[in-house]
# Entry
Amino acid sequence: MKTNECRLVIFDCDGVLVDSEVITNRVYVKMLNELGVTVTLEDMFERFVGRPMSYCWELVTDMLGRPLPEGLIEEYRVRTTAALEAELKAVRGIEATLDALTAKHVPFCVASSGTHEKMRTTLGITGLLPRFEGRMFSVTEVARAKPAPDVFLHAAGRNGIAPEACCVIEDSPTGVKAGVAAGMTVYGYCGLTPAHRLLEAGAHHTFSDMRLLSTLLL
Ligand SMILES: [Mg+2]
# Structure
């Protein structure tokens, strides 16, 4: 789909706009290891990426086999914020992609499994926040998390654009499934997840370098 058909580009946040997944999941692994649970970064990518926090904490509770220790979620929030502030970068090439969309008058927004607070933190650290003011949508605003289509349909509806005229940029199988379920054209960005897994999830196109996206879209 080229831009004459794509009237709104909806970006996922983590792993698409900002390189947060390795940083946040490394904190998860360290905290779980400290609690005596043996997990690897690869396990986390497989099971946690693209999911909302509430789902992740249910998984952690299952892994622990007991209720979460008091204060654990707050400790995770503090440790991830510190790690993000120290290390987080925008995905390479995303600024040029957004510049190209702006030049062609193609509107864009972000629709994330994260909260508004998390988006403001990560987009703020990387300097992307001014580009997304008033254009941020969170699963906290809708009934069902990805892989349900709710947050993408919500973003399209708020922009007054029909779902079939929207393009979704996603990096996780869960997010790709949500975009497909919304009836949108899905571009799978192969940051952490290999192309074949995004295609299996239903992605219509895949690409491995964000700098190529504008040539795919425009
Ligand atoms: Mg993602």
